[in-house]
Structure formats: C-alpha cells, structure tokens
C-alpha cells in the first residue's frame, strides 16, 4: 500500500489513507449538502462516499490479511481498520424555530436540542444509516453554526439561519481508537466555530515468521479435528 494516498470525490469528500506499521488508517473530510430540509441528501451522499471503491485494491494476500478488515482489499473506506470522518456535515436541528433554539442555548439546555439533531436522529432511527457504524463522543458544547463573522452572535442576516451542530467528528475502529476530547474553539474568522478531537490510536506490527508458524499449527490442528470427525462418522 502507498505510504500516503489522497482522493477527492464529487460528493464533497477528501479522503486520505496511509499505513502505520501493519495498521491501515483512513481519514475522510466531508462537506455535505446544505439546508434544513436536506437530511436525506446528506445521508445519500454519505452512503455514496462510504460505499465507493476509491482506492486501488491491494493484490498481496498477506497485506490484505494483515492490514485490512476481514475480507477487505483496501479499495473502500470501511476496509481500513481505523476510520475518522469529520467536516461540515451540515446536519441541523429539526422541529424547532430559531428563537426557541437560541433560548435553549442561552439556558444551557443542550439535551433538548440534541434530541432533535438530524445526525443523531438518523443514527437512532435509520437502520441503514452508514454512520451507525461510527462513534461520536457526547457533545457538550453549543452549536457551531451559524455566526455573524467576527462576533459571538448567531446569524442576524435576513436569512436568520437557525443554530446547528454542523461541524462533527466521528470515528470507527473497535478496540483500536479512543477519543480523549471533543471541543469547539472560539475563532471568529468564519461563520462556523471549528471543532477538534484528540485520540489515542493503537497500531500493530505483524511478524511474518511468527504468523507462518501459527498458521502451520492451526492447519495441523484443523486437520487432526477433521480426521477425528471423519472417524467418528464411520
């Protein structure tokens, strides 16, 4: 596998992957469809991104076995052992007006808003939603969109957009990745507040010689079990 490879998809994603020792890692940055009513389009874009064969398939059988998820050849994002997906995912808060959302934020009632967050609702209610395979740390910060640039005021333009947690970080890699922090930062140069996460990632190194010995031992045990069952069947 190349040390580093990057791909840009027309759905609005920049995908980077690399290997560290014998662990494959894939990072996806997305900018999904904007708009309060575009949840289905955002979900469809994510499906297209995550199910696309975007990288060359790994031809070496040992590398496929050592570095990718079972059955994967490295051509798809979810073939990689560790995946981190982030960006302006553009999910909004449903069934609440802007002023109601603003009052809830001012009162610190984020739970009420998170219950109506389109991303979290899709993960709870849609069995086919591709991000159900990912983890997101609990959100404890105020919505990151949309601000008047250079200020701490939510949008006061004519469009008067409702605040939302558009900027997100999710990850996948059971037992291999742990998130230590999830926070927003008070930079006022954009209409978004950026978010960051700190992670601990566990990587592995495979010994070819030890693997060969263990494979031989497993093959021998399997053959003995097979012979025993054949004798018992007679």
Supply the key terms:
about 230 residues, alpha+beta, 7 strands, elongated
Provide an overview of this structure:
By secondary structure, the chain is an alpha+beta fold. The chain has helices at 39-51, 61-67, 98-106, 110-114, 118-125, 208-233, and strands at 4-9, 13-20, 23-31, 82-88, 167-172, 177-184, 195-201. The chain is built from six helices and seven strands; from the N terminus they run βββααβαααβββα. Strand 2 and strand 3 form a beta hairpin. The longest helix is centred in the C-terminal third of the chain and has 26 residues, at 208-233.
- Largest beta sheet: strand ordering: 1-2-3-4-5
Rg over C-alpha atoms, rounded to the nearest angstrom? 23 Å
Extended strand count: 7
Shape: elongated
Main sheet overview: 5 strands, mixed
Uncertain segments of ≥5 residues (pLDDT<50)? Answer: none
Report helical residue fraction. Answer: 25-40%
How many H/I helical runs?
6
Oligomer: single chain
Strand content: 15-25%
Structural class assignment: alpha+beta
